[in-house]
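Subject: design request, 603 residues
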């Protein structure tokens, strides 16, 4: 099919063609590695020593876009990405995964508290250019998934370097796997816990639940329903103690842009977007970015089935919208543009091809719900949804698109928990704010200049440009968010939706760290805060290292070190490890990041 571009300059078209050709060239190191027979594949130090030069040579053309990060002043040679898996199946079949399992049978067994009936499946593999392997593992016990049992094995030349894991599973204890209550009773308990109308409850089976508690046999119940007084989709996983019916944990599957709502294109003027040429016209499908597509949900909230009545946007002349909401395609153009820029940011800056690193785009749905004041990422259907807003403008801002797609990247990598898990939800939400901000800076669009405000384009009558959903350098300006980490951390029982420690409030700690490390203690133009108000201690002389370096550090920490139950102190440790990987443990980058964490009271 012939590709057409709307309002796209010749220079941009040429750049897209160049990137497409570059990505298609060279060999795929993970494909070639994963095809080896594990029984005959080389192992240990000899395998890594032999493979590393070949990997580096093979991926040099494919990953040349990483040069801006890998060759930044002070970057440690060999720390940039050489190869990465494109699916869990490919990761688990790779020799790197086999080497990691070998280490888990020996040197690492004690550290991860392995018992005889534990088994491990690799979900993701990343290999640095110097041969360092990072293998993300999921654990099972007697065939049952262990929720909270995930970790990352870091090795080089067949030797264990370290293990990244949360505070879970620091025990050799395991539960009896014979349930004492029935699945029917567990289903009743799950239904009773939901505030709204239950549509269905599916039994996902028995698991070993180990998040914030001793490993406990539990039923995992996936509930779908309509929340009370809230259009946000209701999909919650309830973990019910299989011994006594007690609710152990409720995990909300919907990750929204903001707890209290979020607010040619409507928001960024006339921009270039890529569409697909078909017989009789054009479809809002981007073949250059994994065929990501944009649909009209027509007010539907049938998210659980992927909005089956939604229609793909089509057009006769490849001009989409009219800069006004009277044309339904206007906000579709905003969303389509935001997804494209986010794709380009992760691809060109971090070498990641789409949310799942598999080269596939995702579906975006606009006009979701009735005056719905939010946007969300829904991982089960791999889709993004945008409401038309009521208190806010339609929620299709560039940084919101970047924010939501980053939730997908987090789900594909560290799987950071969200509600009801101590600090983790705030880290999850903060990571999305950070990369949503970086996407906005990357776009370099004069109509939506980069800043440290989340969703400022969605606020009505924002003539000063200083109002936003979240002020990321001083998030507590909203009267609810937290910017200084409390002693003992955030209490898990208060981190539910709308709770005192809702992730959208506790993300303020990470957002403060990001701002201080990137920009230093600098009060942005248009705001009258004092320098002392930007820190939790008295360190007002921090000079930032630049957002690109901080972005490189946080991406490395997210994809190589963070796990599902990471706490704020662990995030400090692992982002500093990432800074050491990239720039050295005595570098200015490392020292400034450490000071930024301390300035948010994370020590």
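Subject: RE: design request

Done. Sequence follows.
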């Amino acid at each position: 099919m012939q590709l057409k571009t709307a309002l796209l300059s010749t220079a941009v078209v040429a750049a897209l063609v160049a990137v497409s050709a570059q990505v298609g060239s060279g060999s795929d190191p993970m494909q070639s590695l994963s095809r080896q027979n594990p029984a005959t594949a080389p192992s240990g130090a000899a395998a890594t020593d032999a493979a590393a030069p070949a990997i580096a040579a093979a991926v040099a053309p494919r990953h040349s876009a990483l040069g801006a990060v890998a060759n930044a002043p002070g970057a440690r040679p060999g720390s940039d990405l050489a190869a990465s898996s494109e699916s869990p199946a490919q990761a688990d079949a790779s020799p790197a995964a086999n080497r990691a399992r070998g280490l888990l049978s020996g040197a690492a067994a004690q550290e991860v508290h392995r018992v005889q009936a534990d088994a491990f499946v690799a979900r993701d593999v990343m290999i640095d250019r110097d041969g360092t392997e990072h293998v993300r593992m999921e654990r099972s016990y007697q065939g049952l998934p262990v929720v909270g049992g995930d970790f990352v094995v870091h090795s080089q030349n067949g030797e264990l370097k370290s293990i990244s894991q949360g505070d879970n599973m620091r025990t050799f204890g395991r539960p009896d796997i014979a349930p004492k209550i029935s699945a029917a009773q567990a289903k009743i308990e799950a239904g009773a816990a939901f505030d709204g109308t239950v549509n269905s409850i599916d039994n996902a089976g028995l698991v070993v639940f180990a998040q914030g508690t001793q490993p406990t046999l539990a039923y995992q119940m996936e509930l779908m329903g309509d929340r009370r007084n809230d259009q946000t989709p209701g999909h919650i996983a309830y973990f019910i103690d299989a011994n006594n019916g007690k609710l152990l944990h409720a995990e909300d599957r919907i990750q929204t842009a903001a707890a209290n709502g979020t607010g040619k294109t409507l928001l960024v003027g006339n921009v270039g977007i890529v569409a697909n040429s078909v017989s009789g016209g054009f479809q809002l499908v981007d073949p250059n970015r994994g065929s990501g597509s944009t649909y009209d949900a027509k007010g539907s909230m049938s998210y659980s089935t992927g909005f089956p009545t939604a229609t793909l946007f089509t057009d006769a002349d490849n001009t989409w919208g009219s800069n006004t909401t009277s044309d339904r395609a206007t906000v579709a153009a905003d969303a389509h543009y935001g997804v494209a820029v986010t794709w380009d940011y992760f691809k060109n800056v971090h070498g990641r091809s789409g949310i799942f690193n598999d080269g596939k785009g995702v579906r975006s749905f606009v006009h979701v719900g009735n005056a719905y004041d939010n946007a969300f990422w829904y991982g089960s259907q791999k889709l993004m949804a945008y409401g038309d807003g009521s208190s806010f403008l339609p929620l299709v801002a560039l940084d919101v698109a970047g924010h939501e797609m980053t939730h997908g990247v987090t789900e594909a990598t560290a799987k950071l928990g969200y509600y009801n898990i101590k600090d983790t939800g705030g880290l999850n939400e903060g990571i999305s704010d950070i990369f949503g901000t970086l996407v906005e800076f990357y776009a370099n669009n004069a109509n939506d200049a980069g800043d440290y405000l989340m969703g400022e384009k969605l606020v009505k009558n924002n003539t000063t440009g200083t109002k936003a959903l979240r002020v990321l350098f001083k998030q507590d300006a909203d009267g609810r968010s937290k910017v200084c980490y409390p002693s003992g951390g955030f209490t898990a029982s208060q981190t539910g939706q709308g709770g005192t420690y809702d992730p959208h409030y506790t993300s303020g700690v990470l957002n403060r760290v990001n701002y201080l490390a990137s920009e230093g203690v600098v009060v942005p133009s248009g705001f009258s805060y004092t320098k002392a108000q930007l820190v939790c201690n008295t360190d007002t002389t921090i000079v930032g290292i630049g957002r690109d370096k901080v972005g490189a550090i946080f991406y490395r920490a997210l994809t190589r070190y963070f796990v599902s139950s990471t706490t704020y102190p662990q995030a400090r440790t692992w982002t500093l490890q990432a800074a050491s990987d990239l720039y050295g443990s005595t570098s200015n980058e490392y020292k400034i990041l450490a000071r930024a964490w301390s300035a948010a009271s994370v020590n």
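The domain at 183-252 is CATH 3.10.450 (Nuclear Transport Factor 2; Chain: A,).
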